[in-house]
Amino acid sequence: MARSSSDRDSAFRRLPSMDEVLRDPRAAALTSRAPRALVLELLAAELADWREEIKEGRLDGAALDGRVAQGDLYHRAGARLERELGRGVVRAVNASGVVLNTGLGRAPVHPEAAEAMRVAAESYCVLEVDRWSGERNQRDDYLSDLLRRLTGAEAAIGVNNNAGAVLLVFNTFAQGGRALVSRGELVEIGGSFRVPSVMERAGVELVEVGTTNRTRIADYAAAVDARTGLVIKVHTSNFRVVGFTEEASAAEIAQLGHDRGVTTAFDLGSGLLELAGARPLAPLLGGEPLLSDAIASGVDVVTFSGDKLLGGPQAGLLVGTAAAIAKLRKNPLYRALRLDKVALAGLEKTLELVLAGRGGELPTRAMLAATADELRPRAEALSKALAVLPGLACTIVAEGSQPGSGSAPGVLLPTWVVRATHSKLSAGALAARLRAATTPVFARVQEGAVLLDPRTLLPGDAERLVAAFRAVLSGS
Ligand SMILES: *Cc1c(COP(=O)(O)O)cnc(C)c1O
User: What sign results for the dihedral spanned by CA atoms 345, 346, 347, 348?
Assistant: First the structure.
């Protein structure tokens, strides 16, 4: 412990200078693995931490000398480098059972959509030009037609994500005016998307209608005035209010809009569609509203995400009346929120697959629809492959998987998981090692065990998962 300021000063003086540090061959070993500037940054960061420890009296001169003598600086900078080289958007194995896992990139797309995205990324592509006339057009003209064919809506456009879609709706129809939202629907989604904040940034005054648990159409009707530009219904994706509740239906809101000449919208979030050639999801997802019902309700615009229940790349999709969509398209914000060519190519392919009756092949659809009976043999096979590893004990147990991404809160899809425990490592420590593996594995930790859900494993993931276990358990 550095007790006096002179102890502290002497410890500071004994910190090696960066010149000395870099002259050491152990620094050269690091710079052979990564750019010199990065190694310098990491060594400097480690030294800065040491300086902080000295300042706070947690590191004295003798302890510092010990660290220097043992080469701690290079070991620790090496550990930092290891982490640095594993950062970024790298492939991960999702064994959490949360299908639309926002932390893990939500929907993995169909291989044919992924291929379309790869080609669009690495080549020129027909994006904003009509190849037959040679004239400029809108990049999402084709997407718009696909969505129209799929949903029966008059028109559609796509933007970068659904938060952007909702921002665009508020700004287009109610900027400088008012929008009505039920008090029960002023939701926060994912921490950074709060309906009231989005409205504020869209230049819209929020008029709260009804109460947290009960809002009737009469409440909306009483609040409509000359400044009202929009009445919007927001699906409470990530929570349920139970008990003494009442909400106005989308159809009632649409009728009110027609009667009073106000635009109406429904932010669905997940966008549940039943697809030809795919098992129905509505019975599994407990009351998640259907896109088809939202459109049939007669509201002017319906918004939903491309990468939630649709199972495509990140996007915000807006479908509705030709007049409303045309207004959205004219808003300069639309240009700022537009889809990039890679996501657009993936979305087009996803929708083509769906329209061809191949929706059941979309990875997230297949995962959501998988039954416990189908998952059980996969859990058994995984358990057998893991049980041979040293120190590991595995059983399979009946559990539930979450749809995720704020879809169907409270719904658990019946599944079978591998329950893995280690003779020495705690479940938390084992899970942490799995996340740090070359191909990171994300699992649930529950009641002292690591739970591995086969529902969210993609082709090849079981092998990746076993390899990660083998690597993290060697030597423990
Ligand atoms: C998820 C969600 C959003 C945000 O969608 P992103 O595609 O994540 O931007 C907005 N509204 C609702 C109701 C949602 O569920």
Answer: positive
Q: Mean per-residue pLDDT for 264-276?
A: 93
Mutate which of 235, 238, 267 for ligand 1 pocket (most atoms within 8 A of beta carbon): 267
Q: What are the tokens at 11? A: 């410890």
Query: Which residue puts its alpha carbon closest to atom 5 of ligand 1?
Result: 162
Atom of ligand 1 nearest to the CA of 235: 13
Q: Which atom of ligand 1 is nearest to the CA of 316?
A: 7
**Pocket, ligand 1, Cβ cutoff 6 A:** 161-163, 166, 189, 193, 234-235, 237, 267, 269-270, 305, 316, 406
Question: Taking a C-beta distance cutoff of 8 angstroms, is the pair 128, 138 a contact?
Answer: yes
For residue 462, report the distance from its CA to the centre of ligand 1, in Å. Answer: 31
pLDDT digits (tens, 9 = 90+) for 286-308: 878 999 999 999 999 999 999 99
Q: How many residues does the chain have?
A: 476
Residue pair 266/235 in contact by the 8 Å Cβ criterion: yes
pLDDT in tens, 331-340: 999 999 999 9
pTM: 0.92
CA distance 231 to 14: 68
Distance CA 156, CA 152 (A): 10
Q: Please report which helix (H) or strand (E) contains residue 319, including its range.
A: strand 316-320
Q: Distance between CA 204 and CA 210 in Å, rounded? A: 19
**Is-contact 91 468, C-beta < 8 A?**
no
Residue 129 pLDDT > 80, yes or no?
A: yes
Q: Is the sign of the CA dihedral 392, 393, 396, 399 positive or negative?
A: negative
Tell me the CA–centroid distance for residue 91 and ligand 1, in Å: 24
Among residues 47, 24, 27, the alpha carbon closest in space to that of 37 is found at: 27
- Percentage with pLDDT > 70 across the chain: 98
Please give the distance, rounded to the nearest whole angstrom, from the Cα atom of residue 188 to the centre of ligand 1: 9
- pLDDT confidence tier of residue 6, bands split at 50, 70 and 90: confident
Query: 223 CA to middle of ligand 1, Å?
Result: 26
Residue ID of nearest Cα to ligand 1 atom 13: 269
What secondary structure does DSSP assign to 298-316, as a single string? T-SEEEEESSSTT-SSS-E
Report the first-to-last Cα separation within the chain, whole angstroms: 33
